[in-house]
Every structure is written in structure tokens, then in C-alpha cells.
Design brief:
The complex is a heterotrimer of chains A (about 625), B (about 500) and C (about 110).
Chain A (H helix, E strand, L loop, with lengths): L9 H15 L6 H27 L4 E11 L2 E9 L1 H24 L5 H23 L3 H19 L6 H32 L4 H8 L10 H18 L8 H4 L5 H10 L3 H9 L1 H4 L3 H22 L5 H21 L3 H28 L17 H15 L5 H16 L1 H26 L7 H6 L5 H16 L15 H6 L14 H26 L9 H7 L4 H48 L6 H22 L2
Antiparallel strand pairs in A: 1-2
Helix pairs in contact in A: 1-2, 1-4, 2-3, 2-4, 3-4, 3-10, 3-15, 3-20, 4-5, 5-6, 6-8, 8-11, 8-13, 10-15, 11-14, 11-15, 13-14, 13-18, 14-15, 14-17, 14-18, 15-16, 15-17, 15-20, 16-18, 16-20, 17-18, 18-22
Chain B lengths: L1 H16 L5 H23 L5 H4 E5 L7 E5 L2 H20 L8 H20 L3 H22 L4 H29 L7 H6 L4 H18 L8 H8 L2 H23 L4 H6 L1 H20 L4 H21 L3 H32 L10 H4 L1 H14 L6 H14 L5 H30 L15 H19 L2 H17 L2 H7 L1
Chain C lengths: L2 H21 L3 H30 L8 H32 L13
Classes of the chains: A mainly alpha (about 625), B mainly alpha (about 500), C mainly alpha (about 110).
Amino acid sequence: MQNALQIVYLIPLLPLIGFLINGLGRKHLSKSLIGLIGSGVILASFVLSIWVFLQVKGGNTHIAHYFNFIKVGDLTIPFAFQIDQLSSVFLLIITGVGFLIHVYSTSYMHEEKTEHFGRYFAYLNLFVFSMLLLVMGANYVILFIGWEGVGLCSYLLIGYWFKKPEYNKAANKAFIMNRIGDLAFLIAIFWIITRAGSVNFNDVFAVAKGEVEFRAFKPVDITVVTLLLFIGATGKSAQIPLYTWLPDAMAGPTPVSALIHAATMVTAGIYMIARSNILYSMSAVTMNVVAYVGLATALLAATIALKQNDIKKVLAYSTVSQLGFMFLALGTGNYVAAVFHVMTHAFFKALLFLGSGSVIHAMGGEQDIRNMGGLSKKLTITYVTFLIGCIAISGIPPFSGFFSKDAILLSAFEHNKILYGIALFTAMLTAFYMFRLLFITFSGKFRGTQEQEHHLHESPAAITIPLIILAVLSIVGGFVGVPEALLHGGDRLGEFLAPVIAPAKHASPVSHNTEYGLMALSSILVIIMIIFAWFKFRNYRRSEATGFGKVLENKWYVDELYDKIIVNPLHKFGGFLKSVIEKSVIDGLVNGVGKAVNYGSRQLRLLQSGQAGSYVLLMVLSMLLVFVVQFFLRK
Amino acid sequence: MIPVLLILLPLLTGLVTFFIKDEKTARSWALLASIATLAVSLLGLTVMNDATHLAHKAQWLQTIGSSFSVKVDGMGQLLCLLTAISFPLIFLSTWHSNYKKANNFFALMLLGQAGLMGVFVAMDALLFYFFWELALIPMYFLASQWGGEKRIKATFKFFIYTFVGSVLMLIGILYLQSKTPDHSFALQSFYNLSLPKGTQNWVFWLFFVAFAIKMPVWPFHTWQPDAYEQSPTATTMVLSGIMVKMGLLGVIRWLMPVLPVASYQNGDMVMSMAVVGIVYASLIAIRSDDIKRLIAYSSIAHIGLMCMALFAENKSGMQGVMIQMFNHGINIIGLWIMVEVIERQYGTRKLSELGGLAQKAPVMAIFFVIVALANIALPLTNAFAGEFLMFNSLLSAKTSYLYAILFTVFAGLGIILAAVYTLNMIRKIFFGELTALTANAQDIKLNEKLVMGIIVILVFWFGVYPQALLNITDELSQVLVNKMEISHLLRKQ
Amino acid sequence: MPINYYIFLSIALFAIGIVGVLTRRNAIIIFMCIELMLNAVNLLLVAFSKMHHAANAAVNATAGSDGQLFVFFIMVVAAAEVSVGLAIIVMMYRNIHSVDVNFLNRLKH
């Protein structure tokens, strides 16, 4: 059984092969073959990942070194994969959820032309490939390759329907926002190189721990590096201030949103910080920044989600908010809780997105929930699974979201009571906006057109089966991390990850009774919010948002603010450089030299009068001058 | 043997081309000749990769201390390979372009290639200068005879600009020669010079201005967008893909090791100029509507980064620049080929008049996107390794710590801005709705597919395994970096 | 005779020549004045050559001969110049029926 770790390269290679086949053969293959290849390679990777996971569970970790990617002087960057507890968990999430999304897509995208269908699956496979590269890399550079790779794939998929200019703009925005983060990430890598002389995780962490002679991180280095890495993470994982691309990324097809939000891409930042937990734990400053930025993002996104009317936008902001929770967990030192929440979130957010896709599919492309309502009768499976997803994300026991969110809240409570208070409030908001979405969509009367009502139908099996599987996972997924207070030895995820992530240090450990109290408090508050939402939105009638609601509906005008203070001034400055500095100043100077020469020669030309006499006179005078200089002035 | 062939082959075939009257024959002949040159260059990389084959020395102007001394070193290998690959690609991709007096066009192209090869292999200052001018003159005629509407003005500017630089460099070369004990133009004699600090400083600027104009570094760049815009695209490819590397090579081979102290002292100044250029050119590129000008400005930004990395004076930067010279050449030629196709098909280069091409020409869209993304150094494309190493060198540059950080951050802005203008360009050309001009668009033809296929293969090959290139330049860059070890140089003074 | 006399004579001749060239407009007279200047130089060369020979005759029998050689050169050149110059003047007269040099300002244009 040892050989599972010998062939780990197949895990990313298979999706890459799928990408190549589908990409190159998109005009020649049939749709079913494309779907089969696209999903098949991911399934194969998933099976391999399970095998690898079992190996790792048995205690085998492995660093597979393939070739030297870059070797310059003392700096060696190998192309190597690191298979350990952390990466194996992520492998399962990515390939598992990714596979379901692929299966779902075969049906969801079926109306596309074969050529574009192939292109779509090629992109999806490439996306999974990049993400796998990201989590499997044994050093920061391979991680970065995957990191930029997912950025590229998100760009391609968001702009998948390339005829619409606004979609392409959203795609550009995603890529550029990510690049801002990537720059910080890159600088962090260079900083690490100057201090540690290597980018391999193990070497860097060894230097950080002071186990390597002649090389050391100063505390300020650690802070700078971790902060820069964190800025990178805010780009990829959509945190303040770089989060605005994620809601716009809804321009892509719905399964893509599921892929971006659940299995890949946005979890990259969490993964990277969890991977670098040794560095982060050494810098209190960074930890605080991470915690507060995470919390602020969670709160901000949750408030925006309250007033959104696009089914996918609500889910998008809920993702931003949930990611904020994960960063809160990271910032409070509970990395396991963050990974745990990544996992449960992957289940229920994939479920919710795919569910919303099913709704959109049934509604014939309609995304505005104000035009929906009463869908529960026609779309039963979708409704039930969507409900499960909402319960899970709200954190009602014993659904998966409860355990992971509880771990985060507990960690915040131990850290700082104010953090806890705000986090709890945000969790309540989460329950409220999710159930608002659920009730507006599925309860009450249908508010769409007659034609839409006529076409309402439950989606085919390729769509519902993934939903059901994800629903089951959303229910049971939390049992791998039952808190110690409820079940002795219940936190199996934490134990499993212990070799890579040191167990959280409890600043002020709380008693089991307090823990029970907190659980009860959050559960009760959440249920109250749900009931509140039930009364408010059970029979929703459309109304215009006013006052503060309008601010929320317009997302706090953050996009407009960015346009005003960054984009437009830069644009104007570019124009100024182009039309003034370049044309008048620099080129003016250059042309000025030319003009001066031109002018000078025109003046000198006047000497050439054509009068032979004047030439001779000048000649004689100049000879005289030469004589005078030669014989009287020079010594 | 190899370097002599590399120069003679294009030179002689080029001269012959003048007399081939039939256009088709001239075209095929030029293509064949360039492929033969490529074969020689590949031979030099593989079978005949040893000192006896790669160097040649013959007597030439013995009385003034100059000899015909040529050698292909690591950097020479890469640049000769780039030149050798580029010309067949250029000829193939412009197979359907019509030129009046085609034989003269191809002859001048080949003569230009001979000059470029000479610049890359010359190990004697006078020879270097000779080839430097030899490469310039055909380019001038190409641009002024076959260029766009405003070609006369643009090429005149280009010529005067570079000529001023050349003259300054000639003064510098002559001065250095007069200072060598044996009054020799040989590179090695120049390397053995150790001039006092003050002298180094002013000689440095003589050389640097010449190279800075060629690269071009801000603020010596204004000839470049005009020249790129007005030249026929085949010439633009040579200018931007290969010719700008002459300036970088000049700095690497003829400036920094010869005047190490001045290079070190003026490093901050040069890096500041380059970093201003990066941000400046990127911002202008964002506002450019003409594709050719956009790519021209993006090229200024990229070259600026290379110039910065050189003056960081460490191995990472040196290696990064050397492989980047190659990769940038490949990518930008790929971009120009696409621009050429667009211009030929639709008669415009204005972004505002294009759109929706991805619907009509998907293959072109794919190729364009790949080379455009390679140009902004996406990982696993060829430019990534080079840019990574160059940025890495900036942070550990031989300057004050604060400067190093500032340089890295501001040069890094270039990465973001590059993404902005590149993606905007892609969006405006390929995405969105069709326009009046693009409604009847066709996809690219077989020859263009072939060329772009080769370029894409190179892009990914050297993207996944950049070490293949790094190995070639490893030894040379180590030697050069050792030569510039400034600490002991300063102590000696 | 002291060398000074020769010098003064040739300066005088040369000055007359210059003034003639500068002030006259008739091409033929200018031409003659140029000849005058050339001969002033010739005279000087011969005079110096003689003086040189007298001073160094003991050491070198041929001392000073190079000056006289030069004179021959100048004479040959002057002869060539006369033939070309007069031809030009003749052509000029044929074309514009005048030998006034001030009419020859077409180069300006």
C-alpha cells in the first residue's frame, strides 16, 4: 500500500490531462464524452486522494521531489509535493466537492454549444489542477504557482460568457484584485528567501524555530512576512480590503461559483495561513490584525447580505462573511477550527450554490429572488436540501456548521469577550439573511411571470444527486470535530492535524459548563433569528429599500469609493502622463534639441550670402585671428 | 567556427537576396537562410558546445589593437538562439504580407540579423561597435522604406537618438582603449582596467546613455513607441524582440564588469530611473488605444525591470535578466505576430474599433491570451522564472535596505498595472459584441498557427522547466557577479 | 642683402594681393591678385631657402633645396589653376556676359 504516496503526482496530473483533452478536443468530442472525461479525471483524483488520505492516517507522510524548478546560486526551488495531514484533508475536499460540481455541471451546462461545453470543462479541470498544485506544493513557490493558477482560472470562468462586457469586467476585476494580493505574497516570498535562504516549508519553519545555524528571523521579519502573506490571503480569500471581486464573480456560471466558493480558490488563503501556522503563532501583532480584519469582514459582508436581492449575491456575501469567521479562527490561534470550518463550509456552501443553480435553472435564468417565491412545492428536493444547507450554515446542532462555528466562537470567547460578542451577532445575522433568502425564494406566492411558472420543474438527477450527497455531508460533516466537552476524544480532526498544526493554546481555558452555556446561547439566538425571519419574509412583498437599507443594498458604496479614490485618479494620472508629460515634457525636450539645432543652422545659413567677396573677407579675417592667437595669445 | 558562421551566414545570404528579383523566391530563400542559421545556433548549443567551436579569433586592424575576436558565451548562446529562432518565425508569420521590392526587404532583414549576431558574440570593443552600427542601419532603411504614414519622422528620430548614443559610446570605447596598457580593444583588456573612481563615473554615463537609449530606459524612451508604431511589423518584432537586448547585453558585458565601481555608485540612480519608467510606462499603456503603442509601453516597463535587476548586482538578478531576455523576446514576438494578423485582417489597431473576435477567431484568441498572459509572467509560463528571480534580486539589491524595499514595491506595482492593461486589451479585442470591422473576421491561417504553436510550446517548456535556460547562463553569471564584488574593489581603491 | 628686405617685399606683394581680391569685382583681376599672393609666397620661400643654404652649406651641401622644390610645386599648381580658372571665367563670360563675381551668387539658393 506504500505506493499511493509514490504516485501522488497523478492527483494533479489527471485533471491537467482532462484539461488538455477537453481543451484541444472540444470541437471533436461529443458532450457526453467531454462530461465523462471532465468528471472522470476528478473522480480518479478523488479515489487517489482517499487512498493517500488513508496512508497519511496510517502515519505516512511524504515529500515527493521531482526536479529543480529553479536553482540559482544557493537558492534551490524544487518542484516538490508535500503530502501530510493538512494537504490530505484539503485534497479530499477539493477533489470530492469538485467531483460533485463536475457531475452537476454536465447537466447544468447542457444547453451550451459543444465547443463551449468543452471549453467549460477544460477550465474546470484546470481550476482543480491549480488548486491541487496549491495544496500539494512543498514550498511557497509551488504554492504560489497554484495560487496564481486559480486566479487565472477564476478569470477564465467568470468571463466564461464572454459576450457580455460587464461579465468580462468582473473577470478582470477578480484577476486584478487577486494580483494585488499576489504581489504582497511574492514580496513575502522574497523576504523569506533573504532570511531563510529557502522556500521549502520545512526549512523555513526550522529557521523560524531557530533550529538552523547562521540563519534567523528577527521578530520584525516574522511580522512583516506574516502580514504580507496575510495581504495575499485577503486577495484570494476575499477579505477587507480586497473582497469586492468575489460578489462580482457571480457573473460566471453557477457551478463555477460553487467551485470558487466551496472547494477551491477562496479557501487558499486559509490553507496558506494554516500551513504557515508556525510563523503566525510567533507574531502577536499579525494575529490581532488577522482576527480583527476577519471579524470586520464577517460583519460587513453579513450586513450587506441582509439586503441583497440576487440569490447568488446573497450567497456570495455569506461566503465572504464565513471566510471572515475562518480568519477570526486563524487570528485567535485556533487553526484547526479554521480548517474545520473550511471543510463544513465546503459542504454547505457547495450545496447552497448548487441549490441556487437548480432554482435558477428552473426559473429559466432568473436570479432575482423578488421574482420567485413559493418554489417549495415544485422543487421539493432542491427545497429540502437548500433548507438543510441553511440550517447548517446558521449553526444549529447537530448540523455540521454548528460544530465548526462553535469552535470558532469558543476560540474568540477565550481570546476576547468583545470579539466573541461581535462574532455572535454576526452569526445571528447569518441565520437571518440565510432564512430570509430561503423564505423569500421558497415560501409565499410565486411572483414571476406566467411563462416561468409554467416551466417550473424539478431538476434532473445529475443535479439532484449531488445536492442530496452534499446535504448528507452537511448534516454529518461536523461529527469529525465534536468538542471535547460533548464527547471525549470527539475532536478527531484536531488530533489528525496535530502533527502539522500545534493544538491551540488556550489563553484562559473555559470550563465545560461555560462551553455548554455558550453553545446553548448561540443556538437559541440563532433560532430566534430564524423565527423572526419566518414572520418577516414568509409572505414577502416587494418594497423599495430606503435609508440605511439602501446603503446596505448598495454594499456600503465600497465599489464606488474604490473607483473614486483609486481607479479614477490612476486613470486620470495615466492620461496626464500620456498627453502632457510624454508629449510636451520629455518629447518636447527631445524635439527641442532638434529644433534648436534647426534654428541655429537657419541663422548660420545667412552667412552663406553667395558673395564670393564676403567669403574671402571672412577667410582672411579668420586667418588673421588664427595668426593672432597662434603668435600673440598662446604661450 | 560557430560564431563566425552565425554572422557570415545571414550576411552572405542577405547580400545574395538583393539580387533575387522574384518575390516568392526571395521569401523562400530568406526563410531557408534563417533556418540554416537556426540550425547552426542549435549545433552550438548541443553537439559543438565546447570552447574550440564557440570561439574564434582572427587578425583585424592589428595596428590599432583590434582583432576579430568572437565567442559565444552563456548569454551569447541564449541571445543567438533567440535571434536565430525569431527570424524564421518572423518570416513565416509574415508570409502573406506584401512588400514592394521584397528582395530588398528580406536582404535588409538578414543583414540586420548578421549585425545582431555580431553584437552578441563580439569580444572586441571596436568589433562590437562595428556590429552595433551594422545592426542599426538595415533597421533604419526597413523602417523608413516600408513603414507607416509617419515613418520618416519616426525613423529619423529613432536614428538620431540611437546615433547620439552610439557616438557617446564610441568616445567611451576610445577612451578606455587609450587607458589599457597594451592599447587593445579586447574585452579582456577592458576587464583588467581598474580606473579611478572619478574617471569611471563619467565614462559610465557615456556608455550608459548609449545602452539606455537602446533598451530603452525612461526618460530616453520616446523614440520607441513612435518607431514601433511606424515600422512594418516584421521590423518591429526585430526591434522589440531582439534589438532592445543589445542594450541589456551592453550593460552586462561592456559596462558593469568594466566599470564596477561606477556601476555600484550609480546603481541607485539608474534603478530609480528604471522604476519610474516602469510605473510611468504602465500607466500610459493603460491609456493607450493603439495596440502597437500599448505593447511598446509594456515593453518599456518590462525592460525597466530587467535594467533594475541588473543593477541589483547579484546572481539571482543576473540570471533572471539573462533568461528573461530570451523569454521576453519570444513572448513579445508572439504578441506582435498577433497584432500583425489583426492589422492585416481588419485594417485597424485601435482597441476601440475592435471587439468580439473570440467568437469569430477562437484559435487566435487562445494564442493571444496565452502569449499575453505569458508576457505578464503568469506562473508556468516562461516569463515567470525570470521575473521571480529579478524581483527576488531587487529585495536583496546592493543598496540600502529602505531603497531595496521601495524599489521592490514600486516595481511590483508594475505587475498589477501590467495585469490591468493586458486584460483590458484582451477584453477589448476579443470579448464583448462584434463591431462593424470584426463582423466578417476569419481565424488565423495555417502558417500563423504553426508559428504560434511553436511559440506556445516554448512558452510552456521554459515555463515548467526554466532550469534548462538557467543552466546555460549559470557559469557566466557567476563570473560576472564575482567580477562586480564591490566590497574588495572598494577596499583596493 | 639682409633677409628682411625680402620679407617686407613679399608682405607688401601679399597685402596688395589680398586687398585686390577683397576689393575688386572683376574676376580676372581677382585672379591676378591670387597669382600675386602665390608669387609673394614663392619669393619668400626662395629667399629663406637661400638663407638656409648659406648657413648650413658646410654641414649639408643640399641644405635649403626643399624650399625651392616647393616653389616648383606651387608653380605647377598655379599653372593648373590658371588653366582651370581661366576656363571657368571664359565660361562665365559666355553665360552672363560679364566677369563680375558678384553675379555669381547662385550657390546661395
